[in-house]
Amino acid sequence: MTGKHIKIPTLIFTLLALAACGNMNVGVTSFEANSQGSPYGQQVDQGPAQQADMGSSGYYGYEEAMDTYEEVVQETLAPAKDKKDANSTKTTSPAPAKSSSAKNEAEPAKETEEKTSGKTSEVAEEKAEPKAEPKKSEQPAPKTEEPVLSKTPNAPRSEVVGPGILKPTVYFFAILNEDKNGCKPETRRTLHGAGSKPLLKVCPKTAAACSLQGSCGVIQKGKMHTFNIIGRFDGQDRYFEIPEDGCRFGYGVNSSCLDPFYTLAADLTIYKPGEVIFVPAVVGLELPDGSKHNGYFVIRDKGRGIKGMGRFDFFSGHYSWNDSENPFKKIGLGDVNTNIPYYRIKGEAAKKVQASRAFPSLPPHAVTE
Question: Which of 75, 117, 181, 318 shows a CA-CA span of 20 to 30 A to 89?
Answer without folding.
Answer: 75
